[in-house]
Amino acid sequence: MRLSQDTAAASALTDALVLTGLAKAFDRPAVDGLNLTVRSGEFYALLGPNGAGKTTTLRMVAGLMRPDAGTISVFGIDALRDPIAAKQAMAWVADEPMIYDKLTPLEYLAFVAGLWGIEPRAAERQAHDLIDLIGLGPHCNERCEGFSKGMRQKVALAGALVHEPRLIILDEPLTGLDAASARLVKDVLIARVRAGATVILTTHILEVAERMADRIGVIAHGRLVAEGTLGQLAQQAGRQGSSLEEVFLDLVADKPQPAVRPGMAA
Ligand SMILES: Nc1ncnc2c1ncn2[C@@H]1O[C@H](COP(=O)(O)OP(=O)(O)OP(=O)(O)O)[C@@H](O)[C@H]1O
């Protein structure tokens, strides 16, 4: 017993995110005793049908919503007890990100850097680097109010990277982006993972999950119903050799689903 407690504690320290028994109900359960583990350095995609509980889960992780039950550990930090420390380790990019319209991208990044207490000259250098990274150099002195959805999404992503988070969580980051913007965001995220960060994103674009993710978690009715690589998911669905779309549709078809233990398939 002692040994398994020690093993669990050691794993919680090295894992980027560990959710146990996470629950949240509105008029009915949205997240229903969710257990999920994302390893440090992983690119993890969360899939699930509309209303499955993905955004609610991630909003609880980001500290925007209090769970009814369960625990959230971010690199071993208890995010419910010490939300500030957990937030320092992570970034949250919402699907409809809020940026300040009257600010230019450079001003916005300086503002965010100020919130994190970054020294102004270092912040300015970093803001220019991030603006270059997201390809908004020509617009860096224009107010965000005239920006397209894709441009705003990129500014929000840059803002989320200012404090160099080890865990980057994004809700539908590629929806509504044109091909070039989507490629750029994907490249930024892949580069962050290569540099040692952990990325968790939700997406309805199955090809994104298939091509980019180290592991895919499938959520239905607020519970993890399958997890692993595409091959492992196909095996769990009894559909070896099928496309992710076929496997996914099978996994989330409305039938009783036993919740999987995280890491079971990996
Ligand atoms: N603030 C809220 N108040 C009431 N119900 C909510 C609220 N947020 C989410 N819900 C409900 O919780 C359930 C899960 O919603 P959630 O947004 O987490 O799903 P999702 O998997 O992210 O869906 P989608 O893919 O459509 O974005 C849904 O039934 C939704 O209507």
Automatic annotation (TrEMBL):
Molecular functions per Gene Ontology: ATP binding; ATP hydrolysis activity
Stretches assigned to the ABC transporter domain: 12-246
SUPFAM superfamilies: P-loop containing nucleoside triphosphate hydrolases
UniProt KW keywords: ATP-binding, Nucleotide-binding, Transport
Listed CDD domains: ABC_DR_subfamily_A
UniProt xrefs under PANTHER family: ABC TRANSPORTER ATP-BINDING PROTEIN
Cross-referenced Pfam families: ABC_tran
Family the entry assigns: Belongs to the ABC transporter superfamily.
Protein name per its UniProtKB record: ABC transporter ATP-binding protein
